[in-house]
Amino acid sequence: MNSEITGVVLIFLLTVILAYPLGKYIARVFAGEKTITGFMNPLEKFIFRISGINPRKSMNWKQFLKAMLTINLLWLVYGMFLLIFQDKLPLNPDGNPGQTPDLAFNTAISFLVNCNLQHYSGESGLTYFTQLFVVTFLQFVSAATGIAVMMALFNGLKEKTSNNLGNFWNYFVKSITRILLPLSIIVAVILAFNGTPTSYEGKDSIVTLQGDSVQVSRGPAAGMIAIKQLGTNGGGWFGVNSAHPLENPNYLTNAVETISILVIPIALVFALGFYINKRKLANVIFAVMTFLFVIFCAITVYYETKGNPAIDQLGIAQTAGSMEGKEVRLGAAATAFWSVATTSTSNGSVNGMHDSLTPVSGGVVILDMMINALYGGVGVGLLNYFIFIIIAVFISGLMVGRTPEFMGHKVEAREVKIAALVTLLSAFLIKGFTALAAYMVAHHPDIAWQVKPGAWLNNPSYHGFSEMLYEFTSANANNGSGFEGLGDNNIFWNVTTGIVLILGRYLPIIAPVAIIGLLAKKKFIPESPGTLRTDSGTFGVMTLAVIIIITALSYLPALALGPLAEYFSLY
Amino acid sequence: MIILCAVLYPLLIAGIGKVAPGGGKGETVSVNGKVVGYEKIGQRFTNDNYFWGRPSAVDYNAAGSAGSNKGPSNPDYLQLVKDRIDSFLVHNPGIKKEEIPADLVTASGSGLDPHISPAAAYVQVKRIATVRGIAENKVRALVDRQVEKTVLGPSVVNVLKINIALDNLK
Amino acid sequence: MSTNKRSIQLFDPELIGTAVKQSFVKLNPALMIKNPVMFTVEIGTAVMLAVSIYQLATGDTSQGALWYNITIFSILLITVLFANFAEALAEARGKAQAQSLRKTREDTPAKKILLVGEITLNEIKLVPSSQLSKGDIFLCEAGDVIPMDGEIIEGLATIDESAITGESAPVIREAGGDKSSVTGGTKVLSDRIKVKVTTEPGESFLDKMIALVEGASRQKTPNEIALTILLAAFTLIFIIVCVTLKPFADYANTPVTIAAFISLFVCLIPTTIGGLLSAIGIAGMDRALRANVIAKSGKAVETAGDVDVLLLDKTGTITIGNRKATNFYPADGVDEIAFIQFSTLSSLADDTPEGKSIVELAAQKGVQGKKESGMTFIKFTAETRSSGVNTTDGLSIRKGAFDAIRDMAAKAGHTVPAETAERVKIISSNGGTPLVVAVNYEIKGVIELQDIIKPGIQERFERLRKMGVKTVMVTGDNPLTAKYIATVAGVDDFIAEAKPEDKMNYIRKEQQSGKLVAMMGDGTNDAPALAQADVGVSMNSGTQAAKEAGNMVDLDNDPTKLIEVVEIGKQLLITRGTLTTFSIANDVAKYFAIVPALFIASIPALQSLNIMGLKSPESAILSAVIFNAIIIPMLIPLALKGVAYKPIGASALLRRNLLIYGLGGVIIPFIGIKLIDLLLGLFM
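^ Those are the sequences you sent over. The predicted structure of the assembly is below.
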């Protein structure tokens, strides 16, 4: 047991150690400096040329967002089309059927917005063609979109007074060629050598030792798994994601995959420091994020390794911790750590079933997604954190008697309005839709739908409530993991989560970019002794307080009815 | 971009995968030249003469995969666990309740967990020895040999491998 | 600057009476809607009223006991009234403050000079001041109270401005120049002046300020708007929390009464800051007014808190009045007494403070000079840059700037004595001004004039520096002198040999680099700079042009007032920030009081969340609502007085306020709610 906890600590330390130079590298890539991946240059030039892009054309925030949204819309149509007609397309050795329109809508959006909520099981719901041409492709581009948009933020912070937020296409292409693709290849190779399938062959039928006839799903999974982890996408090749023994064969691959979840999001925080040359600011942001992250990990690891008290009462030995929904080769500690890592970063891949987590852990991972800025999804995590910074800057600016300013730009009514809107939005989406679902379950459990609301929940009472809350929180956070007991492949869930996914993705992207666009346009105010330094520990504490208070105030009643009620009734 | 991400990249990985163990198709285990399973995919073992694996939500049919997704406070679930314990006690006379490790009565995340904990193997030794008529210490020694240790992770026993070894044990 | 005579008690009984009345008037929803937070509370109150009435009529008890609903209704109503009271009290105080200034000038008889076109008739008509309009001319003689604000167009008078400034020493105001403004309500002590009215009745700065305080024309400042938006967002979040709680509760099979919903909602939304927000803004204006500064807008006060650069005139701000003669240094071979005599003679007709101080210093040394008939006094001109006297015995004595006298001497073939040249340098580098005296173009020695730096000014600059405000001294002195004084006084920068356009350029330059600049000025040639500066404080004694250009008027004519204005501005923002933090931090405890209370009936497990150990669900909810209500009046004094500003650096200040108002805001309601619960336990 102790070695398992040591393992978790080592994985985290190793991640940070890797993330630091990676952050430096990313900053250099985007600053256009020479890096070891310079050999990609001709390829990039080729891509720019055939698509008629001038990577040096500067964009203001509106142009930037327009480019981003246009291409995303194109991808949505493309993805939905392929998913619906996947049965007619090649590379379908298992003869899987096309998706229903509502499921295709949900799936395409889900991958487009870097969420990867999966209301299907990979083995039967997709073909190899769509796994590659829709899923893997969108996993690359959605992550690259996140990084590109984040660069708008970086540029806005770097420039004193400017309209130029950089070129979306330039950042987008380089995110793939210089960051995502090279790292994915490394991770995929490690996975392949540890037993994850890579060939295009279909399901295998075998007779087991005991004489059962079973089938084994396979496919070119390793590459997709690599980008799913690195791009904080999270949608697995197989239904159970990285709990699947082929998707995550052993403890080593588990460590590699865990590191892959965290490494880019953390590296981007450092990249911020290197890129805008404010290392201390990045360090403070990193410290605040890590502080909460470590607390969350500690709580989850504690409760998961301690086991389920209800099982304890049955009188058996629970020395390995709560094992329901977990894999023996990974163990409770590593699974607990993964659960926090994946919810912190909006990744959403799982290596154990979150539905079966003990109540406190379940609550922590939900809370983690409600914050959605502890490292966060690639690129967008920092954008979310930026919103918290704006609110913290505003309140603390007032507290020191100065019109609030961040990085030399005054934060005024318009910026506060946008930031407030985003905060409001997540509260609205999560609670509003959970309320709608709860209402259906409470008042119309037997309504004549394809799947009756009364049959949605796999667990009764508080835990059932947590299942619904988790689903919408995950959708809003673009996380994609689920309390998978929820019967979610039907019109109600496909459509509602689809809506939440879109709003939960694009508004929190548009808003910070708009804010930074507005801020960057403003006159630059040089720092004076009266300026509140945003790279100080005090300000870090302030941001932390804002994060905790806002999240707690918005969600405490919901958490009280779900995980907390379950906790108090179990313990 | 599509070509790069959806064609070139997976082909590259597939190419590299060819040289990996199992040739990128998954590593299989054969007995007498006949494939009896995948090393990484768990199988259903319910007969008393084999080491049992963990309960599975998909009955170890690896066409799909799933966990039970039961919440820790779900009364139906707790009843299910209780039934599993009782059933285990019936099949393994002489074993005390508190000796049963939790992984033997709780479903895995994937439903395809190929492993059990060493404790879960040892607790079945007595039954196997009785059913197969082999000395208990020989079976125990087999388990000793089959425990796979990792540096930091938990020690595990591959159920398929140990059962194949068990069949070869005379 | 004794303003104590007008300072008004925080809870003056008369004001409280007005405020109480106003709190009810303000219940009018049309007025309430300006404050979204309190408006939603009012709606909640109305709903509770409806629930209570419905219950009275039908006897339906599904919504809880009647007394309980009525109690909740009453507490909510009181909450709204408390908030209104805070605003009304602030308004009343501000108004009283302004009225006491205005009272003095109402219905003063005015000696209006009749005009026919542009021609002034020598006819005077007595009219009440309220009938004077802009452009009218009136006459004031010794003993008259000036009826209206205006500008002297003819004459000079000593005026007692104590009614406005509290300063008893009379001041001189005269036509032309920078001290031509007179204020209504002040009294002419001697001489007679003709004054042109510069404002329409009801449009003086004071009138404008009263309007600002009264709310009619009160515009929210940018920061206030931003904060209102943030608070509105919080309110919306809590609307979502409360509305979604209904289906949540349904799912959990828990009936929740309307009273409980509304209580939870009212407790969660930031009523504390919402109720005090406008009071804080008004109180800021009021504090400015009490410092005898009339702000033309709330924004000006707020901006003052952000100022980065402060432009201060040397004379009167950093140094006391004018330079004074401190030493006589005769050249070698010149008798000291004789030199002092020459100096005195040359200054006899010199009316400048410097000239007078030379005569005074000479008198101290026992040398008296007397004007004699036949003496020809030479006035200072810009060309000669010297002044002096031609005596009857044929001596031509001149004193002036070193280079002027040196040129004069050189022309006559005399050289500068080495020791005098040396002395001039020493004096200059010590911040003094050397005045060289020549007799018949032969240099006889040098008089040292020194600036006297105001006591305590260094500390004030130090304080400003800690606030992050850069101070800049503006002076007509040469760079050497300016540098010396700047160093001694502790200002950060200086503009030497400043011409009016230099100020303007300096302001522009600082603004271009993104800084906010404040300056004080009085003269007409200051007007462009005052308008350019982000905060321009003009002195009340200054010209009308200057007063129009700035965005504040200082009634005291006190050049150091800027420092106070900056602090008032900061205090305003800090008070808002800290009370917002406090208000939001309070919610944590309220959650712990109400959430378990809501669900405890159906989910007993949530009893563990009742960490305060409140007695019953009803008393828990009541305690929270009561705490929420009474915290408003308890914070009124703080809102009106403002949270103290401490120049300890931004991070340290944030730490301090976060600790007091953030952490305090989390802890205090736990204690408060528990205490109220204990008290309620005695009755329930």
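Residues 40-167 of chain B form one domain. Residues 26 and 38 of chain B are 7 Å apart (CA to CA).

Shout if you want it in another format.
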